[in-house]
Amino acid sequence: MAVTVRIPTPLQKLTGDKAEVNASGKNVQELLADLDRQFPGFKDRLCDPDGKLRRFVNIYINEEDIRFLKNEQTSVKDGDEISIIPAIAGGC
Amino acid sequence: MTFIRGLRCRECAREYPAKALYVCEYCFGSLEVDYDYAAISRKLSRQLIESRPPNIWRYKELLPIDGEPSVGFHTGMTPFFKAHNLGRALGVKELYIKDDSVCHPTLSFKDRVVSVALSRAKELGFETVACASTGNLANSVSALSAKAGFKRTIFIPADLEAAKIIGSLVYAPRLMAVEGNYDEVNRLCAEIGTHYKWAFVNINIRPYYAEGSKTYGFEVAEQMGWKAPQHIVVPAASGSLLVKIWKGFKEFYKLGFLEEPTCRLYAAQAFGCHPIVTAIEEGSDIIKPVKPKTIAKSLAIGNPADGYYAADAIRETGGWGAAVTDEEIVDGIKLLAQTEGIFTETAGGVTVAAAKKLIEQKKIPRDESIVVCVTGQGLKTQEAVQDHVGKPIRIKPNLSSFQEHVKDN
Ligand SMILES: Cc1ncc(COP(=O)(O)O)c(C=O)c1O
Ligand SMILES: [Zn+2]
Questions:
Q1: Range of A28's domain?
Q2: Residue nearest to atom 1 of ligand 1 (CA)
Q3: Structural domain contains residue A91
Q4: Last residue of a domain, one of B161, B192, B209
Q5: Hey, what's the torsion of the CAs at B364, B365, B368, B371, to 10 degrees?
Q6: Are residues B367 and B314 in the same domain?
Q7: pLDDT of residue B181
Q8: Which of B181, B209, B237 is the last residue of a domain?
Q9: How many domains does chain B have?
Q10: Which residue of B lies nearest to A11 if distances are taken between CA atoms?
Q11: SS3 for B18-75, per residue?
Q12: DSSP-based three-state secondary structure for B373
């Protein structure tokens, strides 16, 4: 499955300043693995040493927070849009 | 002269320059302003603070700007007083209200954070400011940026209360009403922020903005006679105000202005959106996001940025939290109005109702000092109470019509 992933500023150094990249996989976990293949070090930044998504990283599929779906097991399909967004933002 | 040393990640302690950055590149942790406390301590004293005009900048050494502020010269030093009537109604001995329903210029505590954010944005060279808001922040950024001379684009959820919309539009910002809830507006703004060189006060300027909330705590301590209360009930949306009130008390202690504070912090949230209270009640390490459904729109953040830190501060101090229903919120607004003569918005109704609940549950003892944080103005959320406050008695302009309706004297 090929999807578009929007990259937050803090990770753009890894993607060669690209704000949007393509990745493939059938769920979020596989997408992250693919991103790590394309951009070595990517996964270390998003996940803690146990491989779990860091608590200050939010991932959205077509605008929906994956924590309302099936977290890293959420499946993705062709054409989905994925956003990776730092959690530390906002305040009414 | 600046007392800012830089920004530092709250998670991994990596250091960054004091620019428009808000998130650690390595671990996505929150960046916080780091000050030179030794230098501040040589300069700042209680006497110096007391000698200054009654606004938030009396604490300016503890606020993150390098030079002089550009707005907020009438913001802060809002009323603080012993609320005898409300105290009696709640059955407690020593209850105080800190009343930001009359904060200048837009009638919520947001004028504090925005004054700091815009002063810093000016120093960082921005021409345009922006924010994602549940209403109060929108009002404050709209007004203060008009004064400070910024271009501005403000994002709000489309379904806000009329007064919060008009209370932004009158200052002529570009107001974007997003078809979605606050969390969606916020996510959108985080994405927009990567494409525009704007100062988003609660995103890339957030480390500076958030520091403004400390002044609410500084004032409580100063106005209590340089001490912290034993208990303080704080409305929580992102959780930032709660975290920063606690930081403010700790800074005053560090500088020798207070004895070591033993203050317990309590989060007040609406039942229809209480991710922070849930984490406290369940003793959970994670903050589970929720989809908000409450009349307390100003507190309707289902995915609170400072949720973890708020929960940490509550646990560290031995506090607790309470979630209240929409009906309890309306009752809280009316109780405050009818005992203390203060009309607060839904967030204030949440706080009063949560204080009542925490006292009834014996989480807060009846014989210790309690501060209730009133942070916004009732005229902005009239929809919440309009069907619950009765109606005027309509009469003809003559004595008999009056007497027909009024039997007592
Ligand atoms: C009136 C009022 N009180 C309290 C809050 C909560 O602020 P925080 O996001 O710092 O928890 C808000 C946020 O909009 C508010 O408008
Ligand atoms: Zn970090």
A1: 2-86
A2: B376
A3: no
A4: B209
A5: 20
A6: yes
A7: 94
A8: B209
A9: 2
A10: B25
A11: CCCCCECCCCCCEEEEEECHHHHHHHCCHHHHHCCCCCHHHHHHHCCCCCCCCCCCCC
A12: strand
Instruction: Please tell me the number of Cα atoms within 13 Å of B240 on its side-chain side.
Output: 29
- Domain hosting residue B144, numbered range: 4-72+110-209
Same-domain status, B224 and B266: yes
Annotate B257-326 with DSSP letters as a single string: SSSPP-PEEEEEEETTB-HHHHHHHHT-SS-------SS-GGG--SS-TTHHHHHHHHHHHT-EEEEE-H
In CATH, what number is assigned to the domain containing residue A7? 3.10.20.30
Taking an 8 Å cut-off on Cβ atoms, the answer to whether A56 and B23 are in contact is: yes
Q: What is the CATH number of the domain that holds B96?
A: 3.40.50.1100
Interface of B with A in 54-93 (CB under 8 A): none
Ion ligand 2 residue ranges (Cβ < 5 Å): B 9, 11-12, 14, 24, 26-27, 29
Q: Indicate the number of domains in chain A.
A: 1
* Of the partner residues A57, A67, A87, the one whose CB lies closest to the CB of residue B305: A87
Q: Which chain B positions have a beta carbon within 8 Å of A13's beta carbon?
A: 25
Q: Considering only the beta carbons, identify the residue of A8, A10, A92 that sits closest to B237.
A: A92
- For residue B112, give how far its alpha carbon lies from the nearest alpha carbon of chain A (Å): 13
Cβ B135–A87 below 8 Å, yes or no? Answer: no
Q: Sort out which chain B residues have CB atoms less than 8 A from A87's CB and list them.
A: 28, 303, 305
Beta-strand pair A2-6/A20-24 = antiparallel
Alpha-carbon span B182 to B376, nearest angstrom: 18
Backbone angles phi, psi at A21, to 5 degrees: -135, 165
Asked if B132 is an interface residue toward chain A (Cβ–Cβ < 8 A), one would say yes
d(CA B198, CA A35): 29
Contact between A67 and B137 using a beta-carbon 8 Å cutoff: no
**B52, part of any domain:** yes
Check if the beta carbon of residue B371 is closer than 8 Å to that of residue B152.
Answer: no
Mutate to test the pocket of ligand 1, among B238, B306, B346 (most ligand atoms within 8 A of CB): B238
The ipTM of this complex is: 0.88
Instruction: List, in sequence order, every residue forming a beta bridge with B35; answer none if it has no partner.
Output: B4
The parts of chain B modelled with pLDDT lower than 70 are none
- Identify the residue whose tokens are 């009732």: B378
Low-confidence ranges of chain A (pLDDT < 50): none
The tens digit of pLDDT for each residue in B140-195 reads 999 999 999 999 999 999 999 999 999 999 999 999 999 999 999 999 999 999 88
Report yes or no on B401 lying in a domain: no
Sign, CA dihedral B104-B231-B237-B388, equals negative
* Contact (CB<8Å) B210/A90: no
Cα B70 from Cα B408, distance rounded (Å): 56
| Whether pTM exceeds 0.80 | yes
Does B255 share its domain with B173? no
Tokens for B407? 């039997």
* Residues contacting B242, CB < 8 A, separation 6+: B234, B236, B265, B267, B306, B310, B313, B314
